[in-house]
Amino acid sequence: MNDNQKIAELLYPQITTTTEEIFARYPKRNLKDGQVVTRFAPSPTGLMHIGNFFQAFISYNLAKNTDGIIFLRIEDTDQKRKIENAQKILYDILDRFGIKFDEYQTLDGKDIGAYGPYVQSQRQEIYKIFAKKLVAEGKVFPCFCKKTEGKEDVLELRKTKFDEDDEKEYDPCRNLSFEEVKRHIDNGESFAIRLKTKNTGKERIKFYDLIKGEIEAKANAKDFVLLKSDGIPPYAFAHAIDDTLMGTTIAVRGEEYISSTPAHLELFEALGFKPIKYCHNPLICKIDEETGNRRKISKRHDPEANMMYYFEMGYPVSSVLEYLLNMLNSSFENWRKNNPDLPWQDFKFGINDITAVAPLFDNLKFNDISKNVISRMSGEELLENWLNWAKEYDKPLAEILNKDKVKFIKLCQMDRDGAVKPRKDIYNYYMMKEYFSYAFVSPTIYEIDECDKNNANEFLQEYLKNFKIPESNEQWFNDVKALAEKLGYATDNKLYKKSPESFKGNTAKVCEFIRVAITGRKNSPTLFAIMEILGEEETKKRLSHKF
Fold first, then answer.
1. pLDDT tens digits, one per residue of 431-453
2. pTM reported for the whole predicted model
3. What are phi and psi of 280, to 5 degrees?
4. Model confidence over 332-359: pLDDT tens digits?
């Protein structure tokens, strides 16, 4: 037994399982040609960021579009950042967005699938088995250096690790003898496990990214940590082992990991593993209002960076997913125009269709997409969705909607059911209470120009004299048109001094007077339908308003 093997036994006397036995527990997946295995591997450290969900969405579609497999792995090794109930919130968000996994661990700890545990904190023995093997092979070493506490400690430590103008970062413990290691262990000192890099800081490597193509970068030259002193692995070591054992064929992750890829590839080589295929998706950005520059979308500055925002504001799930597809692949927009009634799931894309350019989150475009999604809903479907949202986020509103469902179904059906061109004014359920505010109470604010007030009062006074709700929209319009003509609005220059040929425009103007009196706004769904919903008594009351 050489010194490295003796050090391995000294560090991990309790580890008797071999890596060969571990591989026997995780047989190679039996995949058909073209099938991919992807994973989503979030940390339960808080609410889900849109960038993390973007990765889940890409992984999900890559798997489903190839009849492949997607599994969920919880990377909970950072116990200090772990938040209570974060995993439950995570599962709830994924479920509400329809992201279903083939393999995962349930909240009560049951593994669904043959490649678990699917929670990293339950896989610690596996990491130690591979660490022991690497120690025995002399590819890694124990480090007994005290943990750095802050920036000053890090800078001081680096002075001892770097030579001037050198790119390498070697740890002072990398060449400890067996006797020195034993002395530290006998003293009860804790240790981390570090990779013994083979590089000097001058080498360069090339690697292939599935989105960005071939990338050239500096090779890793740091003795980075594989297991911390508490036995917990950082991301690099854990993902290399887990993705290999679990048969991941494509790992989708943010492009911020590109700079770490040389270190990860050196680790794969040290482990004797075939490198995984990485898909570094672009980061979602926004234009900073102060600087005008691009920046990464941030929970601190952008409410839409938090996936809970879309539930709280009442955006349909399809609106969010369709906008992500739009950012993911620019051809989705044309596909949607040509296929307005198909579900978004019918849009298929592959790894080569993912944009390499960081997409910009544009709120106006997102709201336009959501308007289109909602416009395709029937009135009953829209009310049901609005009511379900209100039950969770506005209970008093939910009681009102429940109490008078017939009225609000009619409200939601206006200019929608059977309409050739449905209205596209609504983009989330939060706004609907304000949008339909006239259905709850009489308006208190009126959108009317100062110069129109006298004409409006004159017209409405005459309109009220013989008012009753007509039998049809056509009859209503003809009655308004006749009254406008009788009062001379088309001929006596009372409105904008227009000629008789512009009568249609003047009819629109007097319709505006009626609309503002009833709803408070210049723009609303069909007036005839609104009057029917409000009833004759309430409509007369509103028409009697003096501007």
1. 999 999 999 999 989 999 898 88
2. 0.88
3. -90, 100
4. 999 999 999 899 999 998 898 999 999 9
For residue 337, how many other CB atoms are within 10 A of its CB?
Answer: 9
Beta-strand runs (E) in 20-72? 37-40, 69-72
Residue 77 one-letter amino acid: T
CA distance 18 to 132: 9
Task: Identify the CA nearest to 546 among candidates 435, 448, 475.
Answer: 448
Domain boundary assignment for the chain: 3-16+123-281, 31-122, 300-375, 379-433, 450-543
State residue 215 phi and psi, 5-degree precision: -125, 135
Residue 482 has pLDDT above 50, yes or no: yes
Q: Do 300-375 and 31-122 have the same topology in CATH? A: no
- Rg of the chain over CA atoms, in angstroms? 33
Closest CA to 167 of 225, 236, 219: 219
pLDDT at 41 over 60: yes
Residue 506 host element (H or E): helix 503-519
Task: Using the structure block, give the residue that is written with the tokens 């980061």.
Answer: 283
Give the model's confidence band at 505: pLDDT under 50 very low, under 70 low, under 90 confident, else very high: very low
CATH architecture of 3-16+123-281: 3-Layer(aba) Sandwich (3.40)
Please list the residues that pair with 296 across neighbouring strands. Answer: 285
H-helix or E-strand containing 379?
helix 379-393
What pLDDT, on a 0 to 100 scale, did the predictor assign at position 525? 87
Query: Which pLDDT belongs to residue 499?
Result: 42
Would you call 453 exposed, middle or buried from its count of C-beta atoms within 10 A (0-12, 13-18, 19+)? middle
Q: Of 248, 279, 316, nearest to 102 (Cα)?
A: 248
Q: Give the residue from 136, 146, 131 showing the smallest Cα distance to 231.
A: 131
Residue 90 neighbours by CB under 8 Å, 6+ apart: 42, 44, 48
Confidence of residue 167 (pLDDT cuts 50, 70, 90): low
Confidence of residue 490 (pLDDT cuts 50, 70, 90): low
Instruction: State how far the Cα of 219 lies from the Cα of 102, in Å rounded to an integer.
Output: 36
d(CA 129, CA 226): 12
Cis peptide before 117 (omega within 30 of 0): yes
Distance, CA of 481 to CA of 421 (rounded, Å):
24
The rounded percent of the chain whose pLDDT value lies above 70 is: 92
Q: Give me the half-sphere count of Cα atoms (radius 13 Å) on the Cβ side of residue 307.
A: 25
Q: Got the DSSP string for 293-362?
A: -EEE--TTT-GGGBTHHHHHTT--HHHHHHHHHHHH-THHHHHHHH-TTS-GGG----GGGS-SSPPBP-
Question: pLDDT tens across 79-107, in order?
Answer: 666 677 888 999 999 999 999 999 999 99
Is domain 31-122 given the CATH code 3.40.50.620 in the classification?
yes
Residue type (1 letter), 502:
S
pLDDT, position 165: 41
Amino acid at the residue 211: I
CATH 1.10.1160 correct for 300-375: yes
